[in-house]
């Protein structure tokens, strides 16, 4: 049954959402897609893979794709367990679906004892070993025609020495498009094209995006960012179509702020893609019970950019607004170490994507001035029965000056960061704050800031602008020496950051003792929010602590910052 594009778009406009339509009789193929399975070394670590395969079997999937990071490290026994899991779900080899694997960096880690993440040296032998142990039908780079359509997969090592160059990548995609005119060309990568789906702006591939922009018939399917399939940001259309398959482990996500509640959330999502002559239908399913995370995504074929329903501007118009109930209220309660902010879920409209928690200080003139921000993901990723409808978050006392007057403002945000109605609560800071053991009110002049291999120079406007995507602020020797081992401590930093893109955070800042692992991580707010405070909270190691560096990474091109003050409490 073929449905015209005008009919499709008319139904969409009339319903206010994308309709679910299609008959199995005209379906060309059904493909199951999972990603980021991160298995360990045991059969137990493959339980989610088994659940996914059982779901795909029940759904009648004719091909199963794993978009990479099959194992959490290069685990030979884990790959054998994966194969045993396939054989347990599909005991009859003749009844097994086709398989396709994407090869990614986690399957290289610890390939040899002590090798760590030496991707340049060990990628080729690790992938060869993975291919053999998984009994995978495809190598790290593969092109196949199936049911009259092109399916391509590329490794995360594309562009590295000894692997496919980006020019060769483009040539393969071009050849597939030219030999399959008018049909979708499926391109499977681990990294999403940059600036498309959820968190791809930081964790995506700029080269993939640059190349695929030339090929509107491409359907790019990826993993890597560990997003939830309950999010409407897992699909994107612009110059082509991009879909991210979420993950079969925990998902996290970048959220501005100094330490929101644990961001790792259990995830059980997979995709089932139905291919028709005039559309693709992506069902987002929970492997535990086969339930849906939301309405299917329906992509009309052939692709026409100006009519694509998942362009962000179109999808935003289709989304329902988010709102707190009129009776909702916000409370701020002092505790042992900080102030607990509590509020009900914004359930008067659509399920929000995030909550923005902004703290404001009252000036001498009586006006409210924002000075810090923490964003929290809502409960959208949970099944409705698992949502408790209450949110709470504790901000460290180190943010506030005792006796100062403050106000918390909580605003729900939809998938496209549009704001709903806000809740507000004013309070006076009462909790004591330790005196600094070291502080600098002019760190731009007093401290060294470097990027790999050279000093980081200030721009004419007095800002630091890393061109390498990474910078390090070197705190002085013994800045942390006065802290008591085993006690809670804080590093407070005031930053004025500017990012060229107003949606995603550009700076991830890590407090790193020299020669040790990181102590704490914060994520800056996106856009140009003005001066904001960030607090690193940590327990002082038992053997004490001399000093740390502040490592700035995942810096977007063109981003800049001014460091206003640093203090160790």
- Briefly note the structural class of the backbone: alpha+beta
Give me the CATH fold name of the largest domain.
Answer: Purple Acid Phosphatase, chain A, domain 2
- The neighbouring-strand order within the major sheet is 3-2-1-12-13-14
The portion of residues forming beta strands comes to 25-35%
The best one-word shape is globular
Rg (C-alpha, Å):
25 Å
CATH homologous superfamily caption of the largest domain: Metallo-dependent phosphatases
Record field, number of beta strands: 31
| Mean pLDDT over all positions | 90
Q: What CATH architecture of the largest domain do you see?
A: 4-Layer Sandwich
* Tally of helical runs: 9
Could you characterize the architecture of this molecule?
- Helices cover 16% and strands 31% of the residues.
- It has 569 residues and is α+β, with helices and mostly antiparallel strands.
- The protein folds into three domains: 263 residues, Purple Acid Phosphatase, chain A, domain 2; 98 residues, Sandwich (Immunoglobulin-like), CATH 2.60.40; 131 residues, Jelly Rolls, CATH 2.60.120.
- A six-stranded mixed sheet has the order 3-2-1-12-13-14, covered by helices on one side.
- α2 runs parallel beside α3 and α3 runs parallel beside α4.
- The longest helix has 16 residues.
